[in-house]
């Protein structure tokens, strides 16, 4: 038997099947090597020993070659199979929708994140408000010239006896007070012109000290143009306690400036007037990127009139007066304005036209 | 309010440049809107005197011969052109403020050597109805106007409603002076003559009017005001009328007191200040007849037993007593009216004037005499050499002196949060015109504000004064540190739940939109939404007359817009917002239109109702909640594809396909009329709307399974009308507590089932937490399920 020819043949076996054939041919039950083995018995012990050694060497060589070739062929087959399974990975995938939040929500989230880091709670108030909470209780009685600063949407509520003015189907609408009580009798209904009414609502419901921020929609009766919208959002802040100071207000707004604009962010305060604060201050923040001040909102120390209005209301509800001797500060700022300035959006009306081509741009 | 720089400088000789001034004003709380240089007229714009005026036959324009050092002729259409007046003439070669260059022109066949200018043409005012008028000898003829109107600036400032004392040049100067600048106090002293007053004043309502002065001057010649005065009035936004009217306006701008000059001929016996009678009529200066009532205060002229209305107190004078060219005697009213009454009257009449604007905010109740004297001073300067001012005047004074405020300097430091020196604080208040008296209590003072500071009534107001004058920039920054009162704990939960819901919806592929809160009854009806309950009294547009009762109409409109913009879907939109029905509540609404996961070059993952429902279910799972939908009709939904959503078994809202009638009305997909809808066509807008808050599912931990589960499959044949949820509920009710999984994997109709039957096939998974279930036990569970199903009338497919 020519072992080297056999090894050569095995090394060139083209397929696993032909390799299996060769295995049978040489090492199978009736294979050439096996046949030779069978002849050993007829030989003398010396010859048997010598021939046995040779045959074993053959067998091992053949087995090794078979195994090597098998591995080789299997690898080839796998490669071929994988080759066949190739796809064009550059084709686009399923178009899973990429959702997103409205730009106003994103800005509000950013602002809230900064205040939450300072331990503030986030609460919300109603958009249809009674004149009392929106104006009177925050020191803006009907005759106050400050009411001219805020053009108001006045509302009439569907007839509570059951019929709406239009088709008789709607029922009455109830404005709910801080504890869910009806407050339709506290002046006319308005679309809130600011989130400041929530100062009163929250104070009636809770005992100081506390720190809150209030995001929400507000409404002004304004002709809309690129920089005016009839509906926009404000963020209101209120901190009340026994020793709250104007320096604390500056601290919070400065921290907000740094949260928004980084370590170069800073705040500037100038005197101004809002009926619900005294002293009052408007604040601007330094925008390092553009090297300019952005006027962002109003603030000040809570006017004593508000504390009194709150305690009077609490007393009517049977709650103890909780605000005598307290001090506090409040601020309010426009949300959209920050976005307009930061992203260079030319027209505030884009916000609530809800064009997808606009909304989809604000993702990070 | 517009402040002319040179005017301010008359009171503050050391006033810094306008840029520095802007900073100082900001520090005081006065915001500068703009600083503008007053335009210097072009060098070819000159003073001219009109020599004579000639009508041109059949023409509206006239020929004017004017003196500009030489005689030239011009053509003008101005109605007020007349011989003897001084005018502003733009010579040929002038470039007008609007950019036009004048040449020699022929108008109506007459050569015009330039053009006489109206305020509008000179761009100093809006008025275009006549020429700027000067006295004939105001300037030598031909003098360039630029010689009289040199460099100056006008600073427009914004006045907060609490500071009416800033509504004058002197008022602003006075506040700036508190920063340490020298202030020239106005001290007008008209030359008086002993003349008896020809009138009296009866003040009947001292509540509506607590101060009323009436002065008298005669020998007046009405004519144009000086050239420099007219420029200041224009710059301040007023139109010069005549020297008398201008003197009252000029004084108001300078000192802040509104005043009214009556032609004394019309005053007769005198003036009566009284409440109006219901239905009484007044014709105001603007020519309007106005109906007033008992809430309004009138100035009336006493004529025997009658009192004839001559003006709305504090708002506008009457038309009858107006100053005319023929006026020679003037009665000058300077008064103080109740701010609230003035505001209410002005509001009721829809009439906002310079006077009402000031009175309703609060005019200095003690500045009347000074203002009257200043005005009389100006009359003597501007209205001819023969003006005689009476040595006496009427002054009814019922004003209350300003109330002292108890002020503790220590409180300033406490409220502001920085140490202020007591002496410095008191000095600041004195500089602002307050008087400071010690009290018997140590550390407390009585501070009486000056009469012009009507805004100072509380200790906090004085704190602001100190902080403002020392400077807000001096205040340090601190962060408060305290434990909130326990009743504030947990207040964030509702908002956090909303935020979480938003994140989940966005994470599932929905784009958030925020829509206006407005709607209208018509829109609600079109969208099959509940009728509104909140209506706008002053709606801006016809589609914003009410507040929305549901969110989905807004989303449908967004979809309309998207189609109109040529956007290609799929659209997945959601909004969380408030709706207004019996109360204000918060809703979540979402819609999809188109295959939410298109395959682009391959097959998509499938659209339709179950895509939206799957997303809703995923949202619920993400929030640890269970959601179930049961068939229920809803007006805005397709009657066959409409269900109630149960969130953790509480009904929260509805889900389904948009009603084809609404889709048709909005021209959205799926809007084909029902009768013509081809078989198999499906509506393509699917939506849900849920009322928030959604209940929270509890987190119930159970240990990780240690023993293998037993699986069984079960196919149930039920009538077509039987819903999945009915079968599911039955299986769960009878499977026992070892059932840990139930999954429907097939719904089959067709042979060998009968017409009107369908088969639902379920994978059921059973598991015992502490040991392996035997086949016998699992068989037992299955038997009890099968028995219940069969008992209900269903059959089991073998």
Summarize the structure.
The complex is a heterodimer of chains A (364) and B (798). With 364 residues, chain A is of the alpha+beta class.
- SS-based class of chain B: alpha+beta
Q: Give the CA-CA distance, first to last residue of chain B.
A: 91 Å
SS element count, helices of chain B? 18
- What is the radius of gyration of chain A? 42 Å
| Helix share bin of chain B | 10-25%
The most extensive contact between chains is:
A-B, 98 and 100 residues
Strand elements of chain B, count: 40
Strand and helix layout:
The complex is a heterodimer of chains A (364) and B (798).
Chain A: H1 3-11, H2 16-27, H3 32-38, H4 45-84, H5 103-117, E1 121-122, E2 128-130, H6 131-134, E3 154-157, E4 189-191, H7 197-205, E5 210-219, E6 231-241, H8 246-261, E7 267-271, E8 277-287, E9 292-302, H9 304-316, E10 327-334, H10 335-343, H11 350-353, H12 356-359
Parallel strand pairs in A: 1-5
Antiparallel strand pairs in A: 2-4, 3-4, 5-6, 6-10, 7-8, 8-9, 9-10
Helix pairs in contact in A: 1-4, 2-4, 5-8, 5-10, 7-9
Chain B: E1 2-4, H1 5-11, H2 18-28, E2 31-37, E3 45-55, E4 62-67, E5 71-76, E6 86-90, E7 105-107, E8 110-112, E9 115-116, E10 153-158, H3 169-177, E11 192-193, E12 200-203, E13 209-218, H4 227-235, H5 243-255, E14 259-263, E15 270-275, E16 280-283, E17 289-292, E18 297-303, E19 306-312, E20 316-317, E21 330-337, H6 339-349, H7 354-361, H8 368-382, E22 388-390, E23 394-397, E24 405-407, H9 409-416, H10 422-431, E25 435-438, E26 445-448, H11 459-470, H12 493-507, E27 511-512, E28 518-519, H13 521-526, E29 534-536, E30 546-547, H14 552-564, E31 571-580, E32 584-593, H15 609-622, E33 627-631, E34 637-647, E35 650-658, H16 660-665, E36 685-691, E37 710-719, H17 724-735, E38 739-748, E39 757-766, H18 775-792, E40 795-797
Parallel strand pairs in B: 11-22, 12-15, 27-31
Antiparallel strand pairs in B: 1-10, 2-10, 3-4, 3-6, 4-5, 6-9, 7-8, 13-21, 13-22, 13-23, 14-21, 15-18, 16-17, 18-19, 19-20, 24-26, 25-26, 28-30, 31-32, 32-36, 33-34, 34-35, 35-36, 37-39, 37-40, 38-39
Helix pairs in contact in B: 1-3, 5-8, 6-7, 9-11, 10-11, 17-18
């Amino acid at each position: 038997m020519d072992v080297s020819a056999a090894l050569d043949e095995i090394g060139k076996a083209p397929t696993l099947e032909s390799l299996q054939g060769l295995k049978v041919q040489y090492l199978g039950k009736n294979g050439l090597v096996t046949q030779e083995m069978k002849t050993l018995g007829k030989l003398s012990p010396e010859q048997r020993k010598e021939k046995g050694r040779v045959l074993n060497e053959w067998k091992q060589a053949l087995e090794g070659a078979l195994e090597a070739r098998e591995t080789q062929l299997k690898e080839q087959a796998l490669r071929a199979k994988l080759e066949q399974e190739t796809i064009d990975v550059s084709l686009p995938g399923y178009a899973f929708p990429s959702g997103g939040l409205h730009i106003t929500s994103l800005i509000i989230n950013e602002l809230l994140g900064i205040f939450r880091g300072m331990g503030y709670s986030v609460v919300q108030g109603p958009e249809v408000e009674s004149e009392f909470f929106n104006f009177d209780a925050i020191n803006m009685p009907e005759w106050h010239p400050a009411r001219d600063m805020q053009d108001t949407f006045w509302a009439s509520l569907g007839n509570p006896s059951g019929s709406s003015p239009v088709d008789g189907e709607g029922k009455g609408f109830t404005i709910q007070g801080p504890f869910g009580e009806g407050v339709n009798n506290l002046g006319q209904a308005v679309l809130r012109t600011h989130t400041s009414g929530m100062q009163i609502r929250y104070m009636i419901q809770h005992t100081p000290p506390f720190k809150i921020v209030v995001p929400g929609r507000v409404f002004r009766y304004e002709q809309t143009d690129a920089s005016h919208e009839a509906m926009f959002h404000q963020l209101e802040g209120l901190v009340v306690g026994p020793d709250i100071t104007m320096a604390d207000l500056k601290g919070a707004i400065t921290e907000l400036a740094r949260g928004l604009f980084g370590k170069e962010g800073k705040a500037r305060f100038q005197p101004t007037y809002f009926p619900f604060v005294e002293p009052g201050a408007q604040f601007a923040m330094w925008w390092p990127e553009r090297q300019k001040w952005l006027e962002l909102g109003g603030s000040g120390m809570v006017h004593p009139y508000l504390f009194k209005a709150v305690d009077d209301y609490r007393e009517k509800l049977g709650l103890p007066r909780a605000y005598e001797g307290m001090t506090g500060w409040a601020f309010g700022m426009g949300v959209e304005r920050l976005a307009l300035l930061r992203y260079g959006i030319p027209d505030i009306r884009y916000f609530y036209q809800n064009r997808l081509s606009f909304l989809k741009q604000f993702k990070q | 309010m517009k402040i002319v720089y040179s005017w301010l400088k008359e009171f503050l000789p050391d006033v810094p440049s306008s840029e520095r001034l802007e900073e100082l004003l900001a520090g005081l709380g006065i915001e500068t809107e703009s600083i503008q240089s007053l335009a210097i007229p072009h060098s070819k714009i000159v003073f001219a005197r009109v020599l004579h005026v000639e009508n041109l036959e059949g023409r509206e324009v006239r020929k004017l011969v004017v003196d500009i050092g030489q005689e030239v002729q011009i053509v003008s259409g101005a109605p007020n052109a007349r011989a003897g007046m001084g005018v502003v003439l733009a010579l040929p070669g002038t470039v007008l403020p609007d950019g036009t260059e004048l040449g020699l022109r022929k108008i109506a066949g007459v050569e015009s050597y330039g053009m006489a200018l109206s305020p509008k043409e000179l761009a100093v005012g809006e008025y275009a109805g006549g020429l700027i008028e000067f006295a004939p000898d105001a300037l030598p003829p031909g003098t360039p106007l630029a010689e009289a109107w040199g460099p100056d600036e006008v600073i427009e400032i914004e006045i907060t409603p609490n500071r009416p004392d800033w509504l004058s040049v002197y008022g602003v100067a006075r506040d700036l002076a508190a920063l340490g600048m020298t202030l020239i106090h106005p001290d007008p002293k008209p030359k008086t003559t002993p003349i008896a007053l020809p009138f009296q004043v009866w003040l009947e309502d001292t509540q509506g009017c607590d101060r009323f002065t009436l002065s008298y001057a005669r020998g007046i010649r009405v004519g144009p005001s000086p050239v420099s005065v007219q420029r200041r009035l224009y710059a301040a936004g007023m139109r010069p009328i005549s020297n008398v009217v201008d003197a009252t306006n000029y004084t108001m701008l300078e000192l802040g007191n509104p005043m009214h000059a009556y032609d004394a001929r019309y005053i007769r016996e005198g003036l009566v200040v009284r409440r109006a009678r219901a239905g009484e009529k007044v014709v105001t200066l603007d020519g309007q007849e106005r109906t007033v009532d008992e809430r309004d205060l009138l100035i009336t002229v006493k004529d025997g037993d009658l009192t004839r209305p001559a003006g709305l107190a504090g708002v506008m004078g009457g038309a009858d007593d107006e100053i005319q060219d023929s006026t020679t005697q003037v009665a000058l009213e300077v008064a103080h009216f109740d701010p609230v009454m003035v505001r209410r009257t002005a509001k009721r009449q829809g009439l906002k004037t310079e006077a009402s604007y000031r009175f309703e905010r609060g005019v200095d109740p003690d500045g009347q005499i000074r203002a009257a004297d200043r005005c009389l001073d100006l009359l003597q300067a501007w209205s001819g050499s023969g003006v005689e001012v009476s040595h006496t005047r009427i002054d009814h004074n019922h004003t209350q002196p300003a109330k002292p405020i108890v002020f503790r300097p220590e409180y300033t430091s406490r409220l502001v949060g920085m140490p202020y020196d007591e002496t410095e604080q008191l000095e600041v208040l004195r500089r602002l015109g307050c008087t400071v008296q010690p009290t018997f209590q140590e550390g407390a003072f009585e501070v009486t504000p000056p009469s012009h500071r009507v805004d100072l009534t509380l200790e906090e107001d004085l704190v602001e004064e100190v902080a403002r004058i020392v400077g807000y920039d001096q205040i340090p920054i601190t962060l408060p540190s305290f434990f909130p009162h326990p009743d504030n704990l947990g207040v964030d939960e509702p908002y956090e739940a909303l935020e979480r819901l938003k994140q989940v919806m966005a994470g599932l592929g929905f784009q958030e939109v925020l829509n206006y809160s407005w709607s209208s009854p018509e829109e609600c009806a079109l969208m099959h939404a509940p009728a509104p309950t909140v209506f706008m009294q002053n709606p801006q547009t016809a589609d914003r007359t009410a507040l929305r009762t549901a969110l989905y109409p807004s989303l449908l409109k967004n979809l309309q817009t998207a189609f109109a913009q040529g956007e290609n879907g799929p659209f997945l939109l959601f909004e969380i917002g408030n709706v207004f029905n019996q109360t204000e509540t918060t809703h979540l609404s979402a819609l999809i239109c188109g295959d939410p996961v298109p395959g682009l070059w391959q097959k998509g993952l499938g659209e339709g109702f179950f895509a939206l429902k799957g997303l809703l279910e995923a949202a619920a799972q993400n929030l640890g909640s269970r959601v179930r939908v049961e068939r229920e009709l809803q007006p805005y939904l397709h009657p066959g594809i409409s269900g109630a959503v149960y969130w953790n078994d509480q009904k929260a809202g509805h889900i389904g396909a948009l009603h084809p009638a609404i889709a048709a009305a909005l021209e959205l997909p799926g809007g084909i009329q029902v009768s013509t809808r081809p078989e198999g066509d499906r509506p393509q807008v699917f939506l849900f709307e849920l009322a928030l808050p959604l209940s929270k599912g509890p987190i119930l931990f159970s240990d990780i399974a240690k023993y293998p589960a037993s699986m069984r499959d079960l196919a149930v044949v039920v009538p077509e009308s039987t819903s999945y949820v009915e079968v599911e509920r039955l299986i769960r009710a009878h499977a026992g507590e070892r059932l840990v999984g139930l999954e429907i994997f097939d719904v089959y109709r067709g042979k060998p089932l009968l017409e009107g039957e369908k088969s639902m096939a379920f994978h059921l998974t059973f598991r015992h937490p502490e040991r392996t279930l035997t086949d016998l036990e699992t068989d037992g569970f299955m038997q009890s399920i099968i028995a219940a199903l069969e008992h209900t009338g269903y059959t089991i497919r073998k």
